[in-house]
Amino acid sequence: YTVLIRAINGAGEGDAATITVQTSEAAPTAPPQNVSELSITSVSINVCFDPPTLIDQNGIITSFNLTYFGSPFQTDSATVNIPVEPTAYPLDGTVCRNLTDLQQNNDYSITVIANNSQGLGPISQSIVVTTNEAAPGVGPANVTLLTID
User: Fold this and answer.
1) Beta pairing partners, 97
2) What single DSSP character describes residue 93?
3) Is the peptide bond before 90 cis (omega within 30 degrees of 0)?
4) Is residue 56 helix, strand or coil?
5) C-beta atoms surrounding 145 within 10 Å
6) What pTM value is reported for the model?
7) How crowded is residue 38: how many other Cβ atoms within 10 Å of its Cβ?
8) What is the rounded CA–CA span in Å between residue 63 and residue 69?
9) Count of beta carbons in the 10 Å neighbourhood of residue 140
10) 131 touches 110 (CB < 8 A)
11) pLDDT tens digits for 130-147?
């Protein structure tokens, strides 16, 4: 903020002094927005999202935590840290990350959290994405024909 200070009395106004102050950062106050999948294969999902609005970033976003849980037993899960270059401030473009080594034909619940020097922001709404089913690999082996009279 830039603050202009000037003394005023009955005789008039004095010279103005200008000072610049900067408030401290606070953790983000809104989650990443528009979490969606861009493309899906049998073993990967490309996830995209927008950072919190500039006013809700409350400082310089340093990273995002993208968390996914596979179903039905949530055994296939991880949190992926997506660092942000400090020169990217203000952060206002779509961010995408490809999740790989997933299970085919499986549901994944995906959320994102923004981080800055003061901590984590709120969690985004989750989306559920199903990976594609893969085509069968190797064909059958040792097939025999049995004739029936």
Assistant:
1) 47
2) S
3) yes
4) helix
5) 4
6) 0.74
7) 12
8) 20
9) 6
10) no
11) 999 888 777 777 778 788
Give the largest CA-CA distance in the chain: 123
Tokens of 81: 């840290």
Res 128: pLDDT = 94
2 Cβ partners below 8 Å, 6+ apart?
18, 19, 20
CA distance linking residue 53 with residue 121, whole number of Å: 12
Compute the distance between CA of residue 40 and CA of residue 65 in angstroms, rounded to an integer: 20
Question: What digits encode the pLDDT tens for the residues 14-49?
Answer: 888 898 887 888 999 999 999 999 888 999 999 999
Q: Which amino acid is at 8?
A: I
Which positions ≥6 away from 104 have C-beta within 8 Å?
A: 42, 43, 131, 132, 133, 134
Side chain identity at residue 52, one-letter code: P
CA distance 62 to 55: 16
Residue 94 contacts residue 82 (beta carbons within 8 Å)? no
